[in-house]
Amino acid sequence: MSSPVRFALAGFGAWGKLHAQSIALNPDARLVAITAPSEASRAEAKAAYPDAQIFADAAEMIASVEFDIIDIVTPSHTHREIALAAMEKGRHVLLEKPMAITLEDSKAIVEAAAKHGVKLAVGHELRLSSQWGEIKNIISRGSIGEPQYVLVELSRKPYRLGASGWRYDQSRVGSWVLEEPIHFFDLARWYLEGAGDPVELYAYGNSRDPQRPQLFDNFSAMFKYANGAYAVVSQTLAAFEHHQTVKVSGTKGALWAGWSGALDRTLEPSYFLKVFDGENLEQVQIEKHSGEVFELREEIARCIQMVRGEAAPAASGRDGLWSAGLCLLAEEAIRQGKPLPVGQLIDG
Questions:
Q1: What's the DSSP call for residue 92?
Q2: Are strands 147-156 and 242-250 parallel, antiparallel or unpaired?
Q3: H or E segment to which residue 304 belongs
Q4: How far apart are CA 149 and CA 126, in angstroms?
Q5: Which structural domain range is residue 204 located in?
């Protein structure tokens, strides 16, 4: 019987606490250390996980503790420094999206993983969803033919502030396009991977907050492929609750999926997935709950397999580079007001 995989957790905010919970719930994992930014959050972490060592500083934790993989759930601008410190110690990394707030930092993380021979998983947990992941299976089975059009759309209320308001500070968040639309870029590119890499992108965005015009409440991007396939990624934060839609049309049929909850972390959401194969319409039965809380548990399980050499990461460093790169290119397209070539965005 294999020993539990030892996890160190950097970050104990709202999402970090759910990471801690998911690690603790898995019998093949052991949460050995946690960093938390404030005295109050460190006390909370110690009370919840008395067997874990608690630190104020990620660098100190990495230097002091023996662990197999670090789960980084800190503000986006800190990712590079923490990931590289762990990799230099030969530790595997699960890195929340976005990998970083610049393409340069994202590439540095991927290069460090290769240099030090460690495994890197990027937190695109929607790939492991019983709903959004099943869409990929349906496409792969050829049920709708070759996909020609993908829409991934979200309507929700504004983002949480984050610890010390970091999510509303551009120097720390980078961009709201990097917050949630990044998942949708990843899904759309994954669904259309048979078409190769995208070749052109255009985007629009606006804000209802005159103090933060660069943090787009409303955002939409369209990117196309050489074979004519294209995707639309769209989000509004000027709405209510949390409602996500995916539609895919192919040469043979189409599918439509939706998810709704009062919050993104609702434990009893409503959801559906319908598939039309050109002749018959089927409502797909989804056996496991769909939602990011449940997908996070699947992500932790997949990382355990990754550390043990039993599976590849659900989303690799290259996948993380692509999703971050497309988000950053979309923002540049808004600034320039014209379509931009994707070119050698990642591999150049």
A1: E
A2: antiparallel
A3: helix 292-307
A4: 19
A5: 130-289+324-341
- Length of the chain as a residue count: 348
Asked if the structure places residue 247 within a domain, the reply is: yes
Is the pLDDT reported for residue 2 higher than 90? no
CB neighbour class for 246 (10 Å; exposed up to 12, middle 13-18, buried from 19) = buried
pLDDT of 348 higher than 60: no
**DSSP structure string for 144-192:** T-SEEEEEEEEEEPPPP--GGGGGG-HHHH--STTTTHHHHHHHHHHHT
* Claim to verify: residue 163 and residue 220 sit in the same structural domain: yes
Evaluate whether residue 348 is within a structural domain. no
Judge contact between 126 and 292, C-beta under 8 A. Answer: yes
Spatial separation of the C-alpha atoms in residues 67 and 257, rounded to whole Å: 39
pLDDT given at position 210: 84
CA-based end-to-end distance of the chain: 44
Rounded to an integer, what distance in angstroms lies between the CA atom of residue 292 and that of residue 270?
13
Do 199 and 139 share a domain, yes or no?
A: yes
Domain contains 14: yes
Q: What's the pLDDT tens digit per position in 238-279? A: 999 999 999 999 999 999 999 999 999 999 999 999 999 999
- The dihedrals phi and psi of 209, each to the nearest 5 degrees, come to -105, 110
pLDDT at residue 156 is higher than 80: yes
Tens-place pLDDT, residues 177-211: 999 999 999 999 999 999 999 999 999 999 988 88
In the chain, the percentage of residues whose pLDDT exceeds 90 is: 89
CATH number, position 278: 3.30.360.10
Q: In this structure, what DSSP letter does residue 331 have?
A: H
Write the pLDDT tens digit of every residue in 62-90.
Answer: 999 999 999 999 999 999 999 999 999 99
Joined together, the tokens standing for residue 110 give 């991927």
Looking at the structure, tell me whether residues 172 and 259 fall in a common domain. yes
DSSP-derived 3-state class of residue 9: strand
User: Which residues, in sequence order, are CB contacts of 55 under 8 Å at separation 6+?
Assistant: 33, 34, 35, 36, 42, 61, 64
Residues 221 and 309 placed together within one structural domain of the fold = no
Q: Percent of the chain, pLDDT > 70?
A: 99
Q: Mean pLDDT across the stretch 33-59?
A: 96
